[in-house]
Amino acid sequence: PLTPFSPQEHGLDFQRLLDASAYKEQFRQDMIRWGEEKRRADPGYFCRAAVQGVAQPVWVVSDTRRLSDVEWFRDVYGDSVQTVRVVATEETRKRRNWVFVAGVDDAESECGLDQGVTFDWVITNDGDELALSEQLDMLLQSLQRSL
């Protein structure tokens, strides 16, 4: 059986790890290191954990971070996989309180898909709600047609 990262096992507050707080940032590098160890031993570890026991006609797997993850889903599910990348300018990200942290934001866990993947969809999220809505509508219509 797959054993996902257990915050309790590491003495961490799970709810606080879900937000963008300084608390999460304290442990972010440890969580990344733990995940890297799991991936080195088994590149499909987290992908299998995400789909284990699930039988939905449509899945949205958010926050895929590495080429090996995309390759795993494409190998297992073939042409039914649609990849979507959401982008925002650095200025927009800074307005949303993002601050670059060397060793974290330039690690594979954060930028592993910046090269080597041709995305089926690229959605721009720079704060223009109408433009975002139009892009998402096009994506949803396409996905509905393929069902």
UniProtKB/TrEMBL annotation:
<keyword id="KW-0963">Cytoplasm</keyword>
<keyword id="KW-0418">Kinase</keyword>
<keyword id="KW-0756">Sterol biosynthesis</keyword>
<keyword id="KW-0753">Steroid metabolism</keyword>
<dbReference type="GO" id="GO:0006695">
    <property type="term" value="P:cholesterol biosynthetic process"/>
</dbReference>
<protein>
    <recommendedName>
        <fullName>Phosphomevalonate kinase</fullName>
        <ecNumber>2.7.4.2</ecNumber>
    </recommendedName>
</protein>
<dbReference type="Pfam" id="PF04275">
    <property type="entry name" value="P-mevalo_kinase"/>
</dbReference>
<comment type="pathway">
    <text>Isoprenoid biosynthesis; isopentenyl diphosphate biosynthesis via mevalonate pathway; isopentenyl diphosphate from (R)-mevalonate: step 2/3.</text>
</comment>
<dbReference type="GO" id="GO:0004631">
    <property type="term" value="F:phosphomevalonate kinase activity"/>
</dbReference>
<keyword id="KW-0444">Lipid biosynthesis</keyword>
<keyword id="KW-1207">Sterol metabolism</keyword>
<keyword id="KW-0547">Nucleotide-binding</keyword>
<dbReference type="GO" id="GO:0019287">
    <property type="term" value="P:isopentenyl diphosphate biosynthetic process, mevalonate pathway"/>
</dbReference>
<keyword id="KW-0443">Lipid metabolism</keyword>
<dbReference type="GO" id="GO:0005524">
    <property type="term" value="F:ATP binding"/>
</dbReference>
<dbReference type="InterPro" id="IPR005919">
    <property type="entry name" value="Pmev_kin_anim"/>
</dbReference>
<keyword id="KW-0752">Steroid biosynthesis</keyword>
<keyword id="KW-0808">Transferase</keyword>
<dbReference type="GO" id="GO:0005829">
    <property type="term" value="C:cytosol"/>
</dbReference>
<keyword id="KW-0067">ATP-binding</keyword>
<keyword id="KW-0152">Cholesterol biosynthesis</keyword>
<dbReference type="InterPro" id="IPR027417">
    <property type="entry name" value="P-loop_NTPase"/>
</dbReference>
<keyword id="KW-0153">Cholesterol metabolism</keyword>
